Amino acid sequence: MPQGRAAATEQGLRAAQHPTGFDLLGAALRSLALNLAAVGRELPVLEAVVLHESKVELHLDQDTAPMKPFTAAIGRQDLWTCAASSPDLAIER
Asked: pTM for the whole thing?
């Protein structure tokens, strides 16, 4: 990793390349809404949303098959995760 001003520039480029926090939440939910609408599904009932630096977690009230850009671990279809690096995030226009 570079030092000084080069490090700050590198950090800025990485932040722009992969959204974090509320930007990631917005992109993930927009992407999810577009994908759900395309197949006629509704947004499942959410119990909680957890923001991490590089991912968003949706805690659902019941097991539901995930929809891109979210994935679910085997046996945990009540917990969907979307990484900031997901290629399935909609590009903001």
From this structure: 0.76
